[in-house]
Amino acid sequence: MIAAFNTLLSYKELLLNFTRKELKVKYKNSVLGFFWSLLNPILMMLVFTVIFTIVLPIKNIGGIENFPLFFLAGFLPWNFFSATVTGSTTSIVGNGALVKKVFFPRELLPVSIGFANLVNFALELGVFFLFVLITGLVSDPKYLEFYKFLPYLLIIIPILFTFTIGVSLLVASLNVYMRDVQHLIGILLMVTFYATPIIYPIAIMEGRAPPIYIQAYKANPVTAIIESFHHVLHGVSHPSFNLLVYSAVVAVAVFLVGYTVFLRLEPAFAEEV
Amino acid sequence: MAGKVVIRVDDVWKNFKIYQERNLSLKETLLRRRRAKYEAFWALKGVSFEVEEGTTIGIIGENGSGKSSMLKILAKILRPNKGSIEINGKISALLELGAGFHPDLTGRENTYLNGSILGLTRAQIDERIDDIIAFSELSKFIDMPVKSYSSGMYVRLGFAVAINVDPDILLVDEILAVGDESFQRKCLNKLYELKEQGKTIVVVSHALDQVRNICDEAIWLEHGVMKESGRAAQVVDSYLEEVNRQEESKATELEEVEHGARWGSGEVKITGVRFLDDVENERHIFKTGERLVVEMDYEASEEIARPVFGVAIHSRDGVHITGTNSKFSGTIFDKIAGKGSVRYVIELLPLLKGSYVVSTVVYDFSCLHPYDHHDRAYMLEVSSGELSDYGVFHIPASWGLHDRQPIRELEKD
Q: Who among B79, B95, B121 is closest to A13 (CB)?
């Protein structure tokens, strides 16, 4: 695996070019182009805000202040995860022509999708900070402290990235052998979305199910990562140390498993796609 | 030439899984609790060779002989199941030109992307972009998305990028079938240029003339085994010889599998049909002007009075060239019973080069009741031999200058 890392490093220019291609191609023929990646989370936020503050108000159950901010704080990292995993699933199969004809480390394909989405994520966070300035400061003086906790993102985002790439490598390589993965992944992502406190606060789960289920629910690494984001971006507080360690350990483990499986399956990609 | 060895292939084996029924779905995999059934197909069976620096080497062989697999193994796209390869130098493969072009990106953007896939850095591409565009002859279109390119333009750009990678070792798969005549010539020139610069080139091609001309050496693969290697011209010649031999025997196989329609009441059956030459050898390829005997074995289950045997010849595209029978020719067989054979003898085969299909029939004397009719069931190949006539038929004739005094002179007299 160390050898694989070294090869990867020597291909960093190609990785950059693939990433650039991903970004360019995504919005090539749309009028609003790049703004879609910013518009999308804002529109989603509006939809869920209307649903949960007007149609099915959950404000009182969870006691969340500033639901739009809460939603974005969890949804933006989720969006990064979900878009990267979805895109990676078909990245090897979809580039079959390339994989069959040219040699390059195949992991560049899913990894470049991860980097492209990371760029999107960074821009979205930029817009989010503006949003905090506008709505947060008006509603609650605690947001004056907001910037103090931002450095935590430098720990949380790499954890999110590592975890996401691990899952992506796994699904990308499995999908070469079983195309069911690409169908299954949509459903799994939807289940995970609802099983993660993104549109509701984690607190509302307490007492709703036997403790063992709650334990399982909290063990979800996505939940751990999203909760850290909630702490920093919505709660204006330190993420819990335990959560950080837990999610970091899981992220590295998932990455190692994903990459190992990928490297194991990779030699036959050219024959199987 | 005792140069440095830059490619060393040592006992390389490669197999592919041929799935009978490919189950890519989870359900099937779970239900059967194993992967789909497959047969291993060995594309390469212990191939070894070495290539010295600066050599141009051709890999030839029929389809499915393992040529392209060999090339892909050299390009590191496929990994051998057994054996090893060793490559010293930067390799560039012209396998699929323009593989990896993204339709929505412009020619220029794709050049950068494709260049970096092939291992060039941005700075190197910056340096070469003008050459690449000039070579592709696409300067007017280079900033348009490649989805608006014609397939020819697409391949030209692909070739231009790949050829400018400036590798030590170039792998080429049938590239000279690219673009129009003038572009092909340009590619060929570029290849000669690289060859003169002392690059090592590996070519897979069906264009044997090109292999003979460009390559110093050649390898002939047959069903994954190296059948011959050595000087290009020599290997190409022995390969051609073998192909001709095989065509001869393939025709026999065809005849046994291919059976057109057959009908009849069966009192007499045609049990075998053979094409014999002048020394009674069975053959399927004849030359124009040779003697051809169509021999039909028959078996009559009862005594049959005055049967009529017939033969018809069709061209492959369905033209009925001739149809005749023993009755038309005035030959009357009084009666037949049991087994025997009948011969239809063509002393000088008038058919020209081409593929023909022969029907053989046996009818009753009225020619209305078929006993056994083998419709277009037997393949016959004709090669022209010494003749270069066009068409289907050779009409025996001669040319001559007719010596006659010019008319004017006659008038003067």
A: B121
Question: Which residues from B are below 8 Å from A188, CB to CB?
Answer: none
Q: Which domains does chain B have, with CATH numbers?
A: 5-90+167-245 (3.40.50.300), 262-383 (2.70.50.60)
Residue A117 identity (one-letter amino acid):
N
User: What domain count does chain A have?
Assistant: 1
* Per-residue pLDDT, B114: 86
Compute the average pLDDT of residues B245-267: 62
Complex ipTM over 0.90: no
A101 vs B27, B77, B122: nearest CB: B77
Interface of A with B in 72-101 (CB under 8 A): 95, 97-101
Q: What chain A residue is nearest to B118 in terms of C-alpha separation? A: A102
Chain B nearest CA to A78, separation (Å)? 27
Domain containing A33: what range?
2-272
Q: Chain A partners of B41 at a C-beta cutoff of 8 Å?
A: none
Query: B52 and B3 in contact (C-beta within 8 Å)?
Result: yes
Strand order in the sheet with B268-276: B268-276, B292-305, B335-346
Q: Could you read off the pLDDT of A1-34 as tens digits, one per residue?
A: 778 778 778 888 889 889 988 888 877 777 777 7
Residue A213, class by beta-carbon neighbours within 10 Å (0-12 exposed, 13-18 middle, 19+ buried)? exposed
d(CA A208, CA A218) in angstroms, rounded, equals 13
Tens of pLDDT along B318-356?
778 888 999 888 888 988 989 999 999 999 999 988 888
CA–CA min distance A48, chain B (Å): 34
